[in-house]
Amino acid sequence: MLRTLTTLACLVPALALGQSAGAPLRGSSLVVNEGPGDQTEPHVSGALVAYTNQLSLSSSEIRYHNLASGVDQAIPTQGGYDAISDISGEVVVFTRATTSSRVFRFDVSKGGVAEELAPRTGANRRAAAVGGQTVVWQELGYTVEAEPPELFAYRMDTHALTRLSEDTSEDRAPAVSADGQAVVWMKCATTIDGCDIWAAHAVDGGYQVSQLTGAEGEESLPDTNGEVVVYVTRSTVNGVLETDIAWQPVAGGEVHRLSLPGTDTNPNISGPFIAFERWAVSEGTPNFDLMLYDLRTQTYYRLTETPGSESLSDISVDSDGMARVVWTERQDGHLNVYAYMFRLPSGCDVSPSSKDPAAVCASPGVRPLLGTLLVNNSSGASAVVSTEVEATGTGVLCVDNGFEGMRASQGWVWLGRGLQVAPAELGQDVASMARAVPLQGRRQLSARLDDAPGSAFRVRLYGPLSCADSPQDDSFEGAEIHYGEFVPPESLGTGSDKGSFKHYFVPSGYEGKLASGPGLAEDEEVSQQHLPGCSAGGGSASFLGVWMLAAVLLRGRTARARSRVESGI
Q1: I need a labelling partner for 315 at 20 to 30 A (CA). Which of 28, 86, 230, 261 fits?
Q2: What tens digit of pLDDT does each residue of 405-459 get?
Q3: Which residue, among 76, 96, 77, has the nearest Cα to 85 in the 3D structure?
Q4: Spatial separation of the C-alpha atoms in residues 405 and 205, rounded to whole Å
Q5: Are 521 and 502 spatial neighbours (Cβ–Cβ below 8 Å)?
Q6: What is the pLDDT of residues 446-505, one digit of tens each?
């Protein structure tokens, strides 16, 4: 998933971890491109890698590389300055700068030339991310009131363009789940601070947008696999400034932090694996190395240990267990792109199990979230909601009583025709419930609330965790083996369970209010009326200014990260 590296570092004691080895990673390293010029910003989906190739200050193109065949090709620039790509399946999206900055799509399977997405005169767009049929980007100068970048989601199948943010905050660093159903990004009060993580879920008719983190620290650089959102959290712990990797369910819930001494940044998640970069303060020559973390087994791996810094990493895990990690490394003054391929370790021994439902509800990890219901009695009349789920095995049903409202005492929950929660089990003294439930194919998950106005509860249904054994792969000749260490995360309690967090619904195809209209208020549902965008601010830039800015961003990203660490910012 797309991101731009923003490193906030502090120098702290060397890493000290337990020595319990997890299942080793067995794979091989590959060269993607270490040719002339700078190769940077790699992103991976399956066997395909998309990256930026900058041969000079005034020349930049997007290339795609097949890790299976070794074939490496360029996307025709058509006279533009192309940079900062993302990839999902065989679709590459990127920013093209000419007289303005726009978002383009290129289909690897079809070839030819790239096409602009949702063309609009005077559009100033950048930082596109893609997952499935969903492309998300930043747009500047959409209205006079929207001088800071706003976030738009575009569906390639329906051509619906939807504005996800509408305020004076800075919305940036978007990422999309592989299936295109979840979007996450960082919303900041200014260009440098007051940053929190937000998410948008695709629902019938539009997107449900919600705030996931609050004022307790600074959060940035999110990514999601559709079930978990992972991000950087920066806060003072026991008088020490720490920059760590944290995660929580994308629908909200228990927050966990990988509390390691030092600086961790740029997390990306695919399947159960998080890839991130770590500032190795214990080395003779401190630098960023690449790390992996398995959420299933709480195993931490060090993937690289080189004199240079690895940065701008990404990870992709296929349904068959094949995983690929890509990254940028600076060597002899130039940036190159490399990859590591491995299969997920077998023998997934996970705690907690469905035998401890309360522990699963508190910390579901990568256990699949089959369905979520929010029952809110706003008028005092009976409220009924339902959704269809499908799975087999043993699942875990979680009821969060009083979620975004008062605790309820008259509620029902059904899975199919089976009554799972009766009114006698709820009450003002019951904050939560958890129980193991049988999953028997396709069923309706339903809930009903008969209680005083303002009462509410949430239902979550998690499926069984699938950790199928991976056979020994003999395709990795001269395989590199990386051993892991057991590092359990620290629980930070609930995240978006806090009732003060904002949330609202945006209908599909809503492109924003008129320039004179106010922004979205908390809990406000935007109008169903489709309002056209107007380019009242931030007009088109000159070609020279656009490509010079892009070149500086690309060449300076790693240098900025290094200087901030050295200065202790």
Answers
A1: 261
A2: 889 988 999 999 889 999 989 888 999 999 999 888 889 999 999 988 889 999 9
A3: 96
A4: 25
A5: no
A6: 999 998 888 999 999 988 765 544 445 556 666 888 988 888 888 887 655 445 788 899
